[in-house]
Design a protein that fits this description.
Chain A is of the alpha/beta class. Chain A has helices at 44-51, 74-79, 97-101, 116-129, 148-160, 178-193, 205-211, 235-246, 260-263, and strands spanning 4-15, 18-29, 33-38, 59-64, 67-68, 82-85, 166-170, 197-202, 214-219, 222-228. By secondary structure, chain B is mainly α. Chain B is built from 15 helices and four strands. In chain B, a hairpin with a 2-residue loop joins strand 2 (193-194) and strand 3. Classes of the chains: A alpha/beta (265), B mainly alpha (350).
């Protein structure tokens, strides 16, 4: 069995009286794409924040490569090889691809002078690694000229720099067209082929279904389902399951999604 | 809708590398050297075009005057003073800020220079003291804006009045004559003539070249651009955004100190108003030069050419045979035409 990169055991997070997460178990193995699905308010963003170390869980245990960690923080998360690509893409669109990839960690020589040639070389390598290549742009193209899917490629290339083992993609295909989504999937497959793992978060089941090896459905702060790709025949199964979870007994409207966090306990 | 996406049909794999030939795949229209150069420097080249057209018009109006060296010599004496502030201001505007306090910093730093020289110390020591003063004032203004969370437009305007006010209160309008300067080594090195060319211009060109490298080939320039482009992203990627912002104000302080000192050395006199006249021409130069107001991008060389353009307007208008009353009109005309040109020339990416 593949190495277990990260494991969350019985993670809870409460903001005052409000429970965002109530006892979540989640693990990601090396070279695996895990699709995390959940409606608005299911606790997806809280879970991402915990994984990237921005937020500390109220209770529960985090294991990195089988070893429990203490003092979990953003720096510890990065040290453990976890990189998060946030929803807002966080790119400087008037700058080149190279400048975005090396933002905040410029390759410099004497007195802070940039090693431009080395940066371009390294950027090309990273871009090739995720299959992010084209005849119409170079590492020195301006990010603003790229399409939405290609911009995700820049963000992913930036994330895999520094030997990240797990890349968390927060709704990378939201607001993208089908062809653009396909581009992002292509990058994701390349990243997996390079032996890295991906946690792919989305609320569009079709998007997640095409790419994930394993599905985790989050509902009101709890894991409602964990299923391997082989166990799920079609995206419709997942949709039906989620509708079932959201509206037990087939009475839509009884459980308002907005109350989900309060009800999680 | 059922599952219909077939990603691999659409994948952008056309350029995936073949091992032996990694560079070939990046072939791009702009790979042609000339074209790439033009695309990368379109703002600066646009400014240069404005300058060439303007000078051509002036020369056609009165060809003989423009063959006299005196006309250029006088511009080359005062232009360096402007260049030392225009260039750091390009960094500030790129960073998404503005600094209107540099005229007072010029006055303040050159006042310190005058005091040191008047007290009988070597002018080199005076220059060092002036630069130290400029650094400190830049840090003060920058900290006020950044850590005080103030709008740089208003806060630096306030600081300009405040510092100038201090100078006026203490000096009560009195100027300081520095006749001993003419015999000093510092004057020979920084303010004399070399083969009839005012030596200041060489120092200013050196400053522009160094700053252009700092802007395009140094971590400082890279971080200034990123902070001006998307501060949240810069923060997320571990850049100390506040520190970068304070640094650009310090850079302006240093530039203003050098500019103030040069202006005193030209006149052998320090006036309590030293630097005041530079506020609007310098600001105009930055934007005529092709640095947009929204931050994230800019051009140091363009800013320098903008400064040359602005300094030639006054000389050119008079030399072309028009009365001095036309100067302001032409100033405005050039600014507006340049802005229109840059708007057409530069796309804004969001």
């Amino acid at each position: 069995m593949a190495e277990r990169l990260i494991e969350l055991r019985d993670i809870s997070k409460s903001y005052g009286q409000v429970y965002a997460l109530g006892g979540v178990n989640l693990s990601v193995d090396r070279g695996e794409v895990v699709g995390l699905i959940g409606d608005n308010g299911a606790g997806k963003s809280t879970l991402i924040k915990i994984l990237s170390g921005v937020v500390r869980p109220t209770s529960g245990e985090i294991l990195i490569r089988g070893k429990p960690v203490t003092g979990w923080s953003a720096a510890r998360s990065r040290d453990a090889g976890i990189e998060t690509v946030f929803q807002d893409r966080a790119l400087a669109v008037q700058q080149t691809i190279v400048r975005n990839i090396f933002m905040g960690r410029e390759l410099t020589g004497w007195f802070g002078w940039l090693k431009v040639g080395k940066e371009i070389e390294e950027a090309s390598r990273l871009m090739r690694e995720i299959g992010f290549t084209s005849k119409v742009f170079t590492p020195q193209s301006i990010v603003g000229q790229l399409s939405g899917g290609e911009r995700q490629g820049v963000a992913i290339a930036r994330a895999i720099y520094k030997q990240a083992d797990l890349i968390i993609l927060d709704e990378p295909t939201t607001a993208l067209s089908l062809t653009e989504t396909a581009k992002v999937f292509h990058f994701v497959r390349q990243v997996r082929a390079s032996g890295r793992s991906i946690l792919f978060i989305g609320h569009n089941i079709h998007h997640v279904f095409d790419i994930a090896d394993r599905f985790v459905v989050l509902d009101r702060g709890k894991v409602a389902l964990t299923a391997d790709r082989s166990q799920v025949k079609a995206a419709e199964d997942l949709i039906n399951f989620m509708e079932d979870v959201a509206h037990p007994g087939g009475l839509p409207g009884l459980h308002d999604a907005g109350d989900a966090e309060q009800r999680a306990r | 809708m059922s599952k219909t996406i077939e990603p691999d049909l659409h994948e952008p794999s056309a350029g995936i590398s073949r091992p032996g030939n990694p560079r070939k795949e990046w072939k791009h229209p702009s790979d042609h050297r000339m074209r790439g150069f033009i695309l990368d420097n379109r703002a600066a080249l646009g400014t240069l075009a404005v300058f060439v057209v303007m000078m051509t018009v002036f020369m056609i109006a009165n060809p003989t005057v423009f063959t006299t060296w005196y006309l250029y010599s006088s511009v080359l004496t005062t232009l360096p003073v402007a260049l030392f502030v225009v260039v750091p201001l390009v960094f500030v505007v790129t960073c998404g800020e503005i600094d209107l306090s540099f005229p007072a910093t010029m006055g303040f730093a050159s006042w310190v220079f005058a005091l040191v020289v008047q007290a009988g110390y070597d002018p080199f020591l005076g220059i060092a003291a002036a630069i130290a003063t400029g650094t400190l004032l830049g840090f003060l203004v920058g900290s006020l804006v950044v850590y005080g969370g103030l709008s740089s437009l208003i806060a630096t305007l306030g600081m300009n009045f405040l510092l100038r006010g201090l100078i006026q209160i203490i000096n009560e309008g009195r100027s300081t004559a520095l006749t001993s300067l003419a015999d000093s080594w510092a004057y020979k090195i920084f303010s004399s003539q070399l083969y009839g060319i005012p030596v200041q211009i060489f120092w200013a060109i050196g400053f522009v070249v160094l700053s252009a490298l700092l802007y395009n080939r140094h971590r400082f320039g890279a971080q200034v651009k990123v902070v001006g482009d998307n501060p949240d992203s810069a923060q997320q990627m571990g850049i100390d955004v506040k520190r970068v912002r304070v640094k650009v104000f310090v850079f302006v302080g240093i530039g203003a100190a050098i500019a103030g000192t040069f202006s005193v050395m030209i006149n052998f006199t320090w006036w309590p108003t030293a630097g005041d006249g530079y506020l609007l021409p310098v600001l105009a130069s930055v934007f005529v030069g092709g640095t947009p107001t929204w931050g994230g991008v800019g051009t140091v060389v363009g800013g320098a050419i903008g400064a040359v353009t602005v300094s030639f307007i006054q000389t050119g208008v008079v030399a072309a045979g028009l009365s001095g009353f036309y100067v302001q009109f032409f100033n405005g005309l050039i600014i507006i035409l340049s802005l229109l040109g840059h708007k057409w020339n530069q796309a804004r990416y969001r």
